[in-house]
Amino acid sequence: MIEKIINLVLLSRFLHYFLFTGFGFLINIFSILILTEFIFGKENYIYSYFIGSFLNLIWNFIFNLKVVFKIKNEIIVRLINFFSYHISMTLLQSIAIVWVVKLIGVKYYLFSIIFVIGSFFIFGFLVSKYFIFKKKNK
Known about the structure:
By secondary structure, the protein is mainly α. About 85% of the residues lie in helices and about 0% in strands. The protein is built from 6 helices and no strands. The mean pLDDT is about 90.
C-alpha cells in the first residue's frame, strides 16, 4: 500500500511540476535579488522582475515540455500558447506586485514578488496540464 502511494507520488505530474517550476521560481527570485540589489536598485525592482520572469519562463517551458508533460508534438503551437499565457500572467502579476509594494513598501519588494508569484502557482499548473500541454487524442 505504502509502495503504491510512493510510486504514485513519484510519477505524479504535479510533483514534477512542483519540483521543476520550483527550481524555475528560484532562478526567478535569485535573478530578481541580484539584479535589484546590484544593478537596478530597489526603486527599479520591476525591471528585475521582468528579466527574472523571462529566464524562469524559458526554464519552465523546456522542462514542462520534456520532463513534466513529456510532449513530443505540436511544439511550436505549445510554445506560442505557453508564452501567450505566461506573458499575460506576468503582466497581471507585475500589476499586483506594484500594488502590494505600494501597500507595504519597497523595502519588502522581494516578499511582495514571492507572495504574488506563489498565489498564481496552482492556477498555472492547471492551465499547463489542461490547456497548454494537454495530450491530444489520436
